Structures are given as structure tokens and as C-alpha cells.
Request: fold
Amino acid sequence: MILELDTVSKNFEMHVLDGRTVPGLSEVSFGVAEGEFVAIVGESGSGKSSLLKCINRTYEPTGGRIQLQTEDGAVDLASCGDREVLALRDQDIGYASQFLTEIPRVPAVDVVARPLWEQGADRAEARSQARTLLSALQLPESLWDAYPATFSGGERQRINFARAVAPQPRVLLLDEPTSALDPETRECALTLLDEYLDPATTVLGVFHNRAVVERVADRVVVLDDAELQRVVDIETYQSENPA
Amino acid sequence: MVVVDASGLTKIYGQPCGECVDNTGPAVGDNQCPVCGSVVACADIDFELYDGEVLGIVGESGSGKSSLAELLALDSEATAGTVTYEHYDGNLLAAGYQQRHQLQNERIGMVHQHVRDGLELDFSGGGNVAEKLLAAGWREYDAIRDRVRELFTETEVPVSRMDDPTDTYSGGMQRRVQIARAIANDPSLVILDEPTTGLDVSVQARVLDMFRRIQREQDVATIVVSHDLDVIRLLADRTLVMRHGRIIESGLTDRIMEDPHHEYTQTLINSVI
Reply:
């Protein structure tokens, strides 16, 4: 297993709401094999995004362990130091949030190229690779040098998606990466996952669209009310949930 | 590699009675000692800063952010604590007068919140930058002029204005001249104290973009002090949150913004207009 979650919990203590505790995830355990594509499904508020954010350490888990196998051995993402997380984000973990949170006044092509520079790629080469990705995602060429702040939701989502995919992380976390895309563009994004990523890339993706889940996933993690309901392979998921 | 390692850093204004630290802080809700009236600007500050990293320090006015920045820039004397720094043998806070000046001129760049603390306004902009170079041992007139031109270009100040008095510059240009001064001798530590305060929004953006470019190109360890969460979000990898002179929370900047733990941090994040 490249990634192993063991009783991962996340509670939010809301001081601004009279100190009440809001459960985000409750003792979630499952493992993911290298090269596997795992879809995370569930109702809104079931904990899907919280799960990805705990793995990315945007949220700090309240309990449990998240064991990631790296080239230098196993790391517990739930408890390792902040500096280690930053290094893992540069090399091993890619994350596309639901909404583009890119620094302002950076052209779209540079938003996508930046993770490649940070891995040591040549600037011109990184930009060329970024253009290839933006082209594959059918982002109009006239927007490549523009600032994403003024882009439409679908355009911004494509930038976000390309940025996460570009550096070919070993583990890719995608939070609703195609929710704002029309079916044709969505298919371009999914094709890009097939063709651009190394087959050994492990992907955990939150999806609402059932057709997308069936198109991409090997296994499905079903969350309900912050708890893991079950983990099933895609065939079982399809047979249990006939269209 | 660790560039700065601070431990127990404390600054008290007044005559401390020995109980000032215990009598102040977030739990008490004040930073003035009720016994002796001393003001505990910051106390028990521990952190590490790494090569190429940007560390954000955020907090409201009076939280001790600027006092901490002044201590690290060697602009004021600490009451207690140790700071190890990669270019100094021993406790940096115990450095003698001459050593402090040498470090300030050659190794540590400071951009002050108030322009009068950072620049001689009746000197030319170029003169302000040249002063730093002279202090670091530059002597050859043409070489100094060339380096000032280079730094003006780097910090996007019109070279044609380098011989004009600094008080004829706009606020944004003065901030850029301060940055030019701060990076003049390729320091390994740069401290920015409220880098955008007093600038209008479009100028803030240009100054931040310029600094972010230089920071990335030179990979210099940086401390950014700001009350503005957007500035911290834009620049910092990790962030310390201060209140009443103490660090109340620290962590990855995105974690602080999306999963704030401390009551005050939650209030701060929820206060964004």
C-alpha cells in the first residue's frame, strides 16, 4: 500500500460558535495501492473534501495515522512536521482544490509551469509543457498569458487541474476537479489523466458525477455523515447502484 | 538548513519585576504587567527559519510582531532569549556593537514599516542604497553607481530618479528603495515589517509581486510581519500567529487559514472583510 489511513479523525472545535465540536471525519480506515484510482463519493458534507485535506495536511487530523510510503521510507502525514509536509508537497503529493486559489497576477501558463520550476525544470521547458496541458484541456490560447482571476469557473478549474497534474506527483488528490466542466471538456480532463500521468500514479478523487466515477475508478470509498460506509471495487459499486 | 533558530526570545519595555511574563499574555488578555507596569512586547518566542523559506508573522496591532522583527534585525536589545544565526558564532543577541552593525550591513536586510526608520529622506534614493554598500566595504565610485542602478532596476525604481531626494518619491517607490537597500549586499535573512501598509492597493500588489520574484530568484530566508492575511497568504510557507506578545498558534499557512485551531486565530480568519 502506498497510502494507508488508520482511524483518521478530524473534529473542528469551533470557538466562534460557543466552542461546539463539528465532526469532519470519524475513524476512517482504508488503504490505497500504488497506481490505483480511488473515487471518494458521498453526499455533500459527508467528509469527502475533509479526507483529501487531511491527507494534504491543509487540515490537521485530530486522531489516527496516514502512512505514506516514500522513497525514503514511511511518513505519517497526520503527525509529521510542517517542513516535511512542504517537501512532500513539492515532490510526492499533488492537490487540486475545488476552487482555484492561485496567487494573483500570475499568467495562467506560469501558474501551471510553476510546480515544474520548483522541481528544477528549465523555465522554457516548463512553460512549453504547461501549454501542452492547457491545449489538451481546450483552454483557448488567447487566455494562456492572461491572469486567471478574471476567468470563468470552468476555465479556472482547468488551470487548477493542469497545475496539479503537471508535476506528475506520486499521489494526486483531486477535489471535484471536473464539476464546472461541460461533458466534452470533462472528457478531455479525464483523457489527460489516462495519457499524461505515469501509470504508477495513485489518484484519490472526489466526484459527484457517477459517470465520471465509473469512467475512472478502480475502487470506490463511500462516506456518509463523516464515517466510512464501505470500500468496494468498481464492479460491486455498479451492481449495487444500477443506473 | 536552519538560518535562524530563536529560543525564549523576550522583550520587555520598562523595569521588569520578575513576574511580568507570568502576569501577561493571551490567558490574561493583556501585555502590561499589573505589578510593575512594564510592557511585555513579546515573550518566550521559539521558532526556526530555514534556507529559502518565507515565515509569516500575523497578529493585530500591539501583538508584538514588530517588536519581534526589531529584535531579529538587531535594532533593539532583547530582555532574554537566544538566537543562533548561520553567519554568527554564538548567541546573536549578545553580539557587540560593531558586530551588530556589520551583520546589519552585510547579512540581515530590514524593510521598516515606517519609511523614516529605514531611509534618510533628504538623501537621494541612490545615496540611501549606496550607504549600505559603503558600509559593507564598497569603495569604487563607478562600481557603486553600477550596483545601485542594478538594484533600482531589480526593485523597479526608475533609474532616472536615483539622484533625486528620497522625499520626492512616492510611497511605493520609497518602499522599493528600502527593499533595494535591504538586498544590496545579498543578505541571507530579510525581514519585512508590514511591507504594504500605507500603500494603495495597486501599488501594494506591485511591491509584493516584485518582492516575491526577488525572494524566489535569490532564495533568501524571509520573515514577513503583517496584520494583513492576504499578504501572509501570498508570501508565507509557514505562519506564526501572535497575540499579547506570545505565539498562540503556528503551522503551514494554508492550514492556519483553513483549519485555525486557536480561538483568536478563528476570530482573525473570520474577520476578513
About this structure: Chain A touches chain B through 17 residues (CB under 8 Å). The two ends of chain A are 31 Å apart (CA to CA). The mean pLDDT of chain A is 93.
